[in-house]
Amino acid sequence: MASLTAYLSGLAGDAFGALDLPRDLGLVSRSDRPDLGQFQCNGAMAAARIAKTNPRKIADQIVAALSENGCFSDVSIAGPGFINLSVTDEFLGRFLTSLAADDRLGVEAAPQKVLFDYGGPNIAKPMHVGHLRSTIIGDSLTRLFRFVGAETLSDVHMGDWGKPMGMLISALEAEQPDLPYFDASRSGSYPEESPVTLEDLERLYPVAAAACKADPVRDEAARLATVDLQSGRPGYRALWGHFLAVSRRAMEREFGALGVAFDLWKGESDVHDLIPGMIASLKKAGLARKDQGALIIDVAEPDDSHEIPPLILEKSDGGATYATTDLATILDRVETGAPDAIFYVVDQRQHMHFEQVFRAAKKGGLSGRAALEHIGFGTMNGADGKPFKTRAGGVMKLHDLIAMVREKASERLSQAGLATDFSQEERALIANQVGIGALKFADLNTHRLSDYIFDLDRFMRFEGKTGPYLQYAAVRIKSILRKAVEEDADIPDAALSITSDVERALGLALSAFPEAMEAALERRAPNLICDHVYALAQAYSRFYAEHHILSEKDEALRGSRLGLCRAALTQLVAALGLLGIDVPKRM
Ligand code: ARG
What we know:
The protein is of the alpha/beta class.
């Protein structure tokens, strides 16, 4: 079904069309001046330029045509020719009734096959807050695309093949040279059990990084170990396999705690075997050329406004780069899944990298019909405005952050006197839902390209534009509906009617759901979902403050008001669900 503004745009478009003017001049949007009308159409200004006449004259004709339509309670002109529109309460009630009955809550279907690349944790380096935004935004967008009927695939795309692997291998060799993995002459198999734990890896990586920085000999050893690993040295491959397995368990734990699941657990290493063939064909097509020992692809275009350096396909030591694996991954994805689009939800600071990779992929014909799109985001900062750190100044691990958030949520629930007499288990479940909900909402509420400041106290408030406030708003509606069911055994599927100002305001807020979801989808902007849920919760709360619901004596009115409650709850749960936020059963 069409959204309300799309429907009204159609009516206004017809009116412009009847004057032999372009139909798209009839674009209707929600009004910036709700005191003058619920909706507005500014097409008369552009129409006047086309028809070389006075905008007011055109607006008069449009208003006359629209006034014929019974769905409007008011159509009027303001200023030089702005058209203000308001719909009748009957019309709004009917629209809401059909919205409530629609499977997709009125949102237009957009079937397509899309692959989402997000998360992107690196082996050996603990997952940190930089991976958090990617995960939260990527998960939300994946849910949104799925909601509109897209076939989605999510791929975690682990960083498991670059120099950090060689750094770890050589650092472990420096510490424990007698491990069988380092014996180049060994033949046969290697131990099943991992020689390292997650703690070992987390300790080892900073040690390795410091050693490489301080000592060129160690740095060279790490580089060589990377080349050997990539070219298949058995002991290194076996050791790397252990690193991968140990890290992956931790990643699954972290993503699980966030309620995020991936369809594919692939990594950079998975495309290793595709690289030689890809390079050969890029060479054959005359796209790759030697430059100072390295193999590069020029991607600059004459009309570029800023310099785009060439993509390095192969370093002078023959090693693959981050760009090489990303190119081969495109090849793999296009061959195995044939998606319509591949979306990369990755830090905006990698924008140049993706620009280079996408250009090279298109030049080399690797991306087929798939559109390639980088969906960037800004950083989560500490109070000092720099990327968020621990108190000690180190990188905050996702695991610790999640524990901190849960604890804070539990504290807040106690302070607010919520969930106090529930079982230990249920309280823990709710604290988790509220903590993760607060974290996700705060992240998604900021436009993805903006940075934001991590402020748990603010995120975790039960009032204002926060996850907990919205979860609580939904829980309260659940409880009203539960009571209604207890009293009546059933809530009738009443037609929704608008009988007061606050009901009209709630109805208008509800009617905006499809528009908000469509805009969020189109602009890859979950913050627009946040705006919708918050506006809806506020409109609901005014409605609730002003009207009797359960105690309403008029049966039809009670039915309609319960229906409005149910529609609000359905939208809150659905929209929060698209943000990856669960609504507790009760609080
Ligand atoms: N592992 C990378 C990082 O931590 C992110 C990977 C993003 N995805 C990609 N296809 N390059 O920065």
